[in-house]
Amino acid sequence: MTRRPAVLLAVVWLSAIAFVVVFAGAVSDYDPLAQNAERRLVAPGGAHLFGTDGFGRDVFSRVVHGGRASLGVAGLSVALAGAVGLAVGTATGYVGGRTDAVVGRVVDVFLGFPFLVLSLMIVVALSPAPVTVAIAIAVSLAPQVTRVARASALAVRSEEYLTVVRSTGAGTVRIVVRHLLPASAPPVVAYLIGAFATALGAEATLSFLGLGVPPPYPSWGRMLQEGSRAYFEAAPWVTLIPGAILSLTIVSCVVVADAVTRRVDDATGGSP
Amino acid sequence: MMRYALHRALLIVPTTVAASLVVFLAMRALPGDVALAILADTPHTIEVREALREELGLNKPLSVQYADWALSMVTGDFGGRSLESREPIRAILARQFPVTALLALYAVAVSIVVGLPLGVVGALRRGRPADRIVELATTGGLSLPIVFTSLLTLWLLLRLFGWSPPIIYSSPTEDLREHVEIMLAPALLLSLPYGAQLARVMRSALVAVADADYTVAARSRGLSELSVVVRHGVPNALLPAVTMIGLQFGTIVSGALVVETVFGLPGIGRGVVHAALARDYPVVQSTVIVLVTLVLATNLIVDLVYTRLDPRVASTGSRR
C-alpha cells in the first residue's frame, strides 16, 4: 500500500461516495423530487442533514441521487472516450505510417478546441440530455486519450520481446492484444482516472450553465445552478454543499490518478 | 528563421479550415429540422418558419451553405446576424472580445508572476516541507473546479464584504477603479488552474536540469545553489514553461465561460453560453470558430517565441 496519507484519504472518500451513490435509495430518507411547501430553505441539521432547497426538497437526498447522474455521466463519457482512444491510439501507434499521420492531424484539429467549448457545441447540436452530455464530454476527451495511447504504443512497439513474438509468425491482432496492450495500457488507464475527474468537472459545469442534465432530476452541477440563482445569499448550503462534495471527489480522483501515474512511471522507468 | 516562421504560420490554415468544417457539420448534425428546433418554444406560422429557413440558407445545398459562411468569416462579416437580437455578429464579437482578452491577459500575467516563483521554490526545496506545500497548493489549483471556486468566492465576497459584482462593466479607460473591481476576482480565479500547471511544469523542468552537466559545472565553480538555479536552471526550464503557456491556453478560454457567467462579465465566454441557451446557432457557430482560431494563433505565437528561445528548433525545422 501507499505511504502517502493523501492518497489513502482520497481512496477512502471515493469508496464512501461510491457506496452512498450505489445505495442511494437506502441511504436517503426522502424522495429527491418530493416538494414540501412548509419546509422550504430549512438550514442544515435535524431532520434534514444538509437542509432543504427552495422547493422544500431534501438536499441530502438530492446530493445522493444527483451523484448518480454526475458519476454516471462522467463514467459513461470516460468509458466511451477510453474505448475509442485506446483502440485508435494503439492501432495508429503500432501501425505508424500514413494512417498515423492522418489520425494525428485529426487529433490536432480537435485539440485546437478549448475543452468546454467543444462540449458546449456538441450539447447544443444534440440537445441537452444525460446521454448527449456524456457523448459531448467523450468527444472532447477522446483526442487526448488517443494521443496518450499512441505515445504508449509507440514506446512499446520496438521492444525486443515484440520482435521475438513477431519472429514466431504471430498475427498483428494477436501481437497487439496479447503482447502490446498489456505493456502499453497502464499509462492510459492512469490517464483515464484523471480524465474521470475532468469529466466530472465538465458535467457539473455544463449543467451549471444550463446545458447539462435537464430538470427536475438532480445532478451536482444542476444543484449548483438552482441554488446560486434564486437564493444564494439566504440559503448558501443548497449550492455550496454539493459544490464541496463535487470538488472533494474531483480532487480525490486527481490525487489517485497522480499516484497511479507515478507508480506506472516507476514500473516502466518512464518520464519523471 | 523567417522560413520556419512562415512554414508554421501556413500550417495553421488547414487546421483552421478543418476545425471550421467540424463546427459547421456539428451545427448541421442536429436531428430533424433546425428551423423547427429554433422555433420549438414559440407558436409560429409556416411562413415564419420558411422565412427563417430562407435566412439561415437552409434551402441551399450544404456545400453552398459552408462556402457562404466561410466567405463571410473571411470578409469580416462573421456569419450575418444574431437570431435573437438581430444584431450583426461582428458587432457582438467586437463588443465582447476586449473583455475576454483583458481577462485572459490578467490571468496569464498573474499565473506567470505567482506560478513561476512557486515552481522555483518547489525545485529549490525539493522533498522538503516547502515543496510539499507547493505540491498541495498546485494540486488544489489544478483540480478544484472553477465553477465551485467561483461560487464560493462570490459567496464569501457577499458575506464578508457585502460586495456583489457591479452590474455594468467598465472598460479601463472609462473607470479604472470599477474595472479593477469587476475583473479582480475572475482573473485570480482563472489563474488558479493555469498558474498551478505552470508551477508544476517549472518545478519538474528545474528538477530535470538540476543534474545536467552545465549545472554541475556551475556548482563546481563555487556558485551558490540559488544563483545556479537562477542563472542556469531557469533559462533552460523556461522552454517547457513557455510551451505549456501555449498548449494550455484553451484552459483559460474554458474557464472564461464559467467566471464570466458567474460574475456577469459581458465577454465572449458568457456570450457563447447565452447564445447556446437561446439556440442562436449562427452566433454559436461563428463564436466557436473565432475561439478556436484564437487558441491556434496563440499556439503559433508561443511556438515562434519558443524558436527565438531555442535556436536548435529552427535549424532542424521541427521540434519532434
The CATH superfamily of the largest domain in chain B is known as MetI-like
Overall geometry of chain A comes to elongated
CATH class of the largest domain in chain B: Mainly Alpha
Instruction: Assign the structural class of chain B, choosing from mainly alpha, mainly beta, alpha/beta, alpha+beta, or little secondary structure.
Output: mainly alpha
Order of helices and strands of chain A: HHHHHHHHHH
CATH architecture of chain A: Orthogonal Bundle
Q: Helical proportion of chain A?
A: over 70%
Structural overview:
By secondary structure, chain A is mainly alpha-helical. Chain A has one domain: MetI-like (MetI-like fold). Helices cover 74% and strands 0% of the residues of chain A. Chain A is built from ten helices and no strands. In chain A, helix 3 (59-95) runs parallel beside helix 6 (130-157). Chain A is elongated. The two termini of chain A are 21 Å apart. In chain A, 50% of the residues are buried. With 320 residues, chain B is mainly α. Chain B has two domains: 2-74, no CATH class; 94-277, MetI-like (MetI-like fold). Chain B contains 14 helices and no strands. Chain B has helices at residues 2-28, 34-39, 46-56, 62-74, 89-124, 129-143, 146-161, 176-209, 213-220, 225-247, 249-263, 268-277, 281-309, 311-316. The radius of gyration of chain B is 24 Å and the shape is globular. Chain B starts with a helix and ends with a helix. At the A-B interface, helix 4, helix 5, helix 8, helix 9 and helix 10 of A face helix 1, helix 6, helix 7, helix 8 and helix 11 of B.
